[in-house]
C-alpha cells in the first residue's frame, strides 16, 4: 500500500513539474497574425482547388494588403480573384 501511495505522489509531482515548465504559446494569449493566417489559407485553397487556384497570386495579395483580405476557401467571393478557368 505504501509503495502505491509513494508511486502516486511521485507521478503527480513529476506530471506537475513537466506541465509547469512547458513552453506553450497559445494563440489566445499572444493574438494572431493575419498575414500568417492569410498565407496558410492560400495554401489550403491551393490544396483544395489544385490547378484552378492561383496560390502565388493569393500569397502576393496577402503580402500586399498585409493580411487584411483573408481568403476563405468556402467563400467563393473571397477567392474569386485567384480562380482561373484553365
From TrEMBL:
GO terms for molecular function: ecdysis-triggering hormone activity. Pfam families: Eclosion (PF04736). One of its GO terms (biological process) is ecdysis, chitin-based cuticle. It is found in: Secreted. Disulfide bonds join 38-62, 42-58, 45-73. Keywords: Disulfide bond, Hormone, Neuropeptide, Secreted, Signal. Its main location: secreted. GO terms for cellular component: extracellular region. Residues 1-24 form the signal peptide. InterPro entries: Eclosion. Belongs to the insect eclosion hormone family. Neuropeptide that triggers the performance of ecdysis behaviors at the end of a molt. It triggers adult behavior patterns: larval, pupal and adult ecdysis, and plasticization during the molt. This is Eclosion hormone.
Amino acid at each position: 500500500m505504501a509503495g502505491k501511495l509513494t508511486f502516486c505522489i511521485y507521478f503527480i509531482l513529476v506530471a506537475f513539474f513537466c506541465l509547469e515548465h512547458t513552453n506553450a504559446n497559445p494563440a489566445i494569449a499572444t493574438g494572431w497574425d493575419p498575414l500568417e493566417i492569410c498565407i496558410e489559407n492560400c495554401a489550403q485553397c491551393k490544396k483544395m482547388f489544385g490547378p484552378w487556384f492561383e496560390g502565388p497570386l493569393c500569397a502576393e495579395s496577402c503580402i500586399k494588403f498585409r493580411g487584411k483580405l483573408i481568403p476563405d476557401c468556402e467563400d467563393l467571393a473571397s477567392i474569386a480573384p485567384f480562380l482561373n478557368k484553365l
